[in-house]
Design brief:
The chain has 1020 residues and is mainly alpha-helical. The chain is built from 50 helices and 10 strands.
Length: 1020
């Protein structure tokens, strides 16, 4: 290998970029905690874009010098290109390897306990036995990402760390996904995350374009776009290169030819320094090739071999492919290094081009037969001596070399082997790309090669179902099944759905019902994930395909998925029977994972059906067994759905405690994909428990970290419910619309529909839009609600009944009132009330229906309060106490005062402004002090009902007409004032009531019952 050879950049002077460098150093200061705002540090992320050669690497080098002076650890990882392929997680592997060298003790402590999982990024952390692929499901990739985030937080806890990923335009999809996750998930630590990319390579269909757009929406990511140098900056650069001031003619020629591109300036200056003063080409490619052609013939040949080997080629591999004596190879390389065309790698173990543009120019100049021959030579050398390349790169590089050698017989098994390695590292996007390449190679490969392939070696997605995977030849359907699952795990669901449809058609054509049913289950999952439907049609088709067949793993999986679908969409006796059959079939075929999945679903169905204790016990047992076996998707399901079931039956405190513990468990197991679901559930439980500020925090976090529309939809729905309770109606309306958009219109679940409809009814009632509130109620099915939806059905009926009670006596609401009240009553009778929370809602709804008919009693409200006192629902209890107090004003003022004070205290703690105002108005009208140690207020002298809200008598007259829907012109004609005066009065009323529109003002008047039903002045 080469000894000390001058490899300094042609340009020793850092020119320009003062503003950009200031942004980077500022980000480093914030990350390091140098400001008072975040003394413990705050993770920062910066993207640096610019065309090839514009100076991105030079800017990073300048930052490196400053970071080192501040004591920061600086690690760089580049996206490795092999042909057109990127190695999965290559930049992270390289950067983490550097950090391990710089901070061995800190790294060892940070990875402790998770060496095996993190070895997928850094193989030397733990030995991965060949043939052991580990568990694979939806949670595994999220687990790896979460553990990576926690690793970076721990290692940067005390010392600033700068992590640089270069050349993102070559990044594999898994690397891009990990970067996206880290920009969202990193919350603490003294970490500066930096990434560079070529903006001129990011064409319209480049995969980096949507990635950059997504990061742009992340407020924590800063983006710098480097432009070209101006004439003055080019002059300074030339001065540094030439060690002398350039004359005007030379400066003009270089500036015109380079157009301010820093690398072009260096290359032109190098050509001039070598005496090439005439015939300067307009094409940089030609300039670079002229430089190569000036090398000795042996050096030219080595440079061409190097260009086809990838971004970096090891010394031993280059020696084997070149076929030269080592001394001759070193001399050839020395010539390339001295010409500033190639350079040794940082560790001295290999070589790379000084700039990727030079490599691309040389590679593009090769003829197709030359490329095939060189790739074949590389592949043969690696096969002959696998130690020539790092272990973690070997499979991928062999696959790329054989594929570009156009040798299908060699390429097919190599590509399949690389796909297995990608799967083992949870690089599912790269696995999918390789499997699609294998699908193209399948027919081109000789039959003898295909018959030697075995599913046990390359495919694990489809269960064996009676055949011996060690002796049965691999089928094309095995390949399609593997690609379907890889697409689902990589979240490239569109491609996965197309592949699954193709697989099912082929399976049906071959008469393979089990495989066709398996593809049907995959299609169902993908259709749901894409929001294209509820997945029932695909499951029903799968059920028909396995009907009458002997028990099998696929049969058990189909039944388990159908039972789960029933629980979400249509729970009932059939769902229980299906879940029991799924458990039985899974047990018969020895598939414990499917058995546990079905038993967990069965437990939830039992709890929904009223067998609460038995159902929850079953779910707790499955959770314990899943943790014992370490099955990620089952652990995640238990952590999310067990608390959901607890909340559904009113055990909110138990649910919240389990979720808070579950978030820690999920972090330990790296189950990041479940975090948003758990946070959304936690937000709901905290809302019920009256911990509204904490509920908002959890919901906002769930909205931020949630992948996919469903968890974000639930988080936003909780925010909408909170805003509704606090009287922030515009925000509640935004959240309601956003939640409905997330849930979609393609067969959303009854639970999500009811949740959003409840917010919609509440908003309509708050704005006196009675017709809209009733329309939302009428969307509910005439046959009632399924058992699993009771949790959301009760609040919907309660808020609808309250809306009707608040508008009692309003002429505009009279038509259709009887039918609506009867409908609410009929639907309520169909709901179970077997737990205190449901009993409280049941009695609340019945009391509101009585109020809507003018027949409510203190006894009715006392029953509702008694039920809520046994449940953890402070808001509901406060509202019921306020109503109970009103009903006691003429019979027991002392008790009414106690109830109002207790309700007022709760409303203040919650920040429930409408309820607090309602209580205040009632207390003032009843002359009750809300402070126990204050005397009752004096009797007001001839004041109208609006005086408690600060309204003048004339404003009361105007509000009375606003409440019945009169316009400014109609108000003016009824009160004999001008329309302008009426408009001024309306504006004053809105300001005093703290509302944003006439509808809300009318709703306030109805809610406070300021104006009992009576004739109003007729409109002209």
């Amino acid at each position: 290998m080469l000894g000390d050879v001058e490899t300094r950049s042609v340009s020793p002077v850092f020119v320009g970029r003062a503003g950009e460098l200031s942004v980077l150093t500022g980000a480093l200061s914030r990350a390091a905690g140098e400001g008072a705002a975040h003394p413990a540090g705050e993770p920062q992320a910066v993207l640096i874009g610019g065309e090839a050669g514009v100076g991105k690497t030079r800017l990073v080098e300048e930052l490196w010098e400053q970071a080192c002076r501040r004591g920061a650890a600086f690690a760089v990882g580049g996206c490795v290109e092999i042909g057109v392929d990127g190695l999965p997680f290559a930049p992270f592997s390289a950067a983490l390897r550097t950090l391990r060298q710089l901070m061995p003790d800190e790294m060892a402590a940070a990875v402790a306990g998770h060496e095996r999982e993190l070895s997928r990024l850094l193989p030397e952390l733990a030995e991965q036995p060949r043939g052991e692929s580990g568990a694979h499901d939806d949670e595994e990739l999220a687990r790896l990402f979460e553990l990576t985030a926690r690793l970076l937080e721990r290692i940067s806890a005390d010392r600033p760390v700068v992590l640089v990923l270069e050349d993102l335009h070559w990044a594999d999809a898994s690397t891009r996904h990990l970067i996206t996750y880290l920009t969202r998930a990193l919350r603490r630590g003294r970490l500066l995350f930096l990434a560079t990319y070529r903006s001129d390579d990011v064409h319209r269909r480049h995969p980096l374009r949507p990635f950059l757009a997504e990061l742009e929406r992340t407020r924590a990511v800063h983006r710098i776009e480097l432009g070209r140098f101006n004439r003055g900056e080019v002059r300074r650069q030339l001065t540094g290169i030439l060690a002398a001031e350039p004359d005007s003619d030379l400066l003009d020629r270089v500036f015109d030819r380079s157009d301010g591109n820093a690398f072009f300036v260096e290359e032109l200056a190098r050509s001039l320094a070598e005496g090439n003063t005439c015939g300067l080409s307009d094409s940089l490619r030609d300039i670079l090739l002229v430089r190569v052609e000036a090398l000795p013939e042996s050096a030219q040949r080595v440079v061409r071999i190097l260009a086809e080997g990838g971004s970096t080629v090891e010394h031993g591999l280059l020696l084997a492919v070149a076929g030269l004596p080592e001394d001759d190879l070193i001399e050839a390389l020395r010539a390339g290094v001295e010409a500033h065309i190639v350079q040794p790698t940082a560790d001295g173990g290999g070589y790379r081009f000084r700039h990727a543009l030079a490599r691309e120019a040389v590679s593009d100049d090769l003829l197709p037969p030359e490329r095939s021959r060189l790739n074949r030579a590389y592949a043969a050398a690696v096969e002959a001596d696998p130690g020539l390349v790092p272990d973690e790169e070997r499979a991928m590089r062999l696959a790329s070399y054989w594929y570009h050698a156009n040798d299908a017989a060699k390429a097919l098994p190599a590509v399949l082997g690389a796909a297995v390695e990608a799967r083992r590292r949870h690089a599912y996007s790269e696995q999918l790309r390789l499997l699609e390449r294998a699908m193209k190679l399948w027919d081109a490969a000789p039959e003898g090669v295909r018959t030697e392939l075995r599913p046990v070696d390359y495919a694990e997605a489809f269960p064996p179902c009676g055949c011996d995977p060690e002796t049965t030849p691999m089928r094309f359907l095995d390949l399609i099944a593997e690609a379907t699952v890889a697409g689902r795990y990589s979240r490239d669901r569109e491609r996965a759905l197309k592949i699954a449809k193709r697989g099912q058609r082929l399976a049906v054509g071959e008469g393979d019902a089990l495989r066709a049913a398996w593809f049907g289950v995959q299609r169902s999952k993908l259709v749901c994930a894409l929001g294209r439907g509820d997945g029932w049609a695909e499951l029903a088709e799968a059920q028909e395909l396995v009907r009458g067949l002997p028990p099998s793993v696929v049969h058990a999986q189909v039944l388990s998925e159908i039972a789960h679908w029933y629980r979400v969409h249509s729970p009932g006796p059939e769902s229980l029977a299906t879940a029991e059959r799924a458990v039985e079939y899974a047990r018969m075929v020895g598939d414990e994972e499917t058995e546990l999945t079905a038993k967990f679903c069965l437990g939830g169905l039992m709890a929904d059906a009223g067998h609460i204790d038995d159902g929850l016990a079953e779910m707790y047992a499955v959770k314990a067994r899943a943790l014992e076996l370490g099955i990620p998707h089952l652990i995640a399901s238990a952590l999310v759905n067990l608390p959901f079931s607890l909340e559904s039956v009113g055990r909110s405190g138990e649910a919240a405690a389990l979720l808070e513990e579950g978030l820690e468990t999920a972090a330990r197991h790296g189950l990041a994909g479940s975090e948003a679901w758990m946070l959304g559930n936690l937000a709901e439980s905290r809302y019920t428990l009256g911990r509204w500020d904490e509920a908002r925090t959890a919901a906002e976090r769930a909205r931020e970290v949630g992948y996919g529309p469903q968890p974000r939809g639930w988080a936003v729905a909780v925010l909408g419910t909170l805003e509704l309770g606090r009287g922030e109606y515009e925000a509640a309306a935004r959240h309601q619309r956003e939640a409905r958009g997330h849930f979609g219109t393609e067969s959303p679940s009854p639970q999500s529909t009811l949740y959003v409809d409840t917010i919609e009814i509440g908003l309509a009632a708050a704005e006196a839009r009675t017709a809209d509130a009733r329309a939302a109620l009428l969307r509910t099915g005439p046959d009632g609600f399924p058992p699993g939806a009771y949790r959301y059905a009760w609040p919907l009926l309660r808020i609808a009944a309250t809306a009707e009670a608040d508008t009692r006596g309003l002429p505009a609401a009279a038509e259709g009132r009887t039918e609506i009240l009867d409908r609410i009553e009929r639907l309520a009778k169909g709901l179970a009330a077997t737990v205190p929370l449901w009993q409280g809602h049941d009695r609340w709804v019945r009391a509101e229906l009585l109020r809507a008919r003018g027949a409510d009693t203190a006894a009715a409200w006392a029953e509702a309060a008694e039920a809520f006192e046994r449940a953890d629902f402070p808001y509901g209890l406060a509202v019921v106490r306020r109503r109970w107090a009103e009903s006691l004003l003429t019979t027991d003022r002392a008790r009414a005062a106690e109830l109002l004070r207790a309700a007022a205290e709760t409303a203040a703690e919650l920040g429930a402004r409408p309820l607090a105002e309602d209580i205040t108005v009632l207390a003032q009208r009843a002359r009750i002090s809300l402070a126990a140690d204050e005397p009752e207020p004096p009797v007001p002298l001839e004041q109208g009902p609006g005086s408690v809200l600060g309204l003048t008598p004339r404003e009361e007259d105007v509000l009375r007409l606003v409440a019945v829907g009169r316009s400014n012109r109609q108000i003016a004609e009824a009160l004999y004032i001008s329309p302008k005066t009426a408009s001024v009065h309306v504006s004053n009323i809105l300001a005093k009531l703290g509302v944003s529109g006439r509808g809300e003002a009318a709703a306030v008047a109805h809610r406070f019952r300021l104006f009992p039903p009576e004739p109003v002045p007729p409109a002209a």
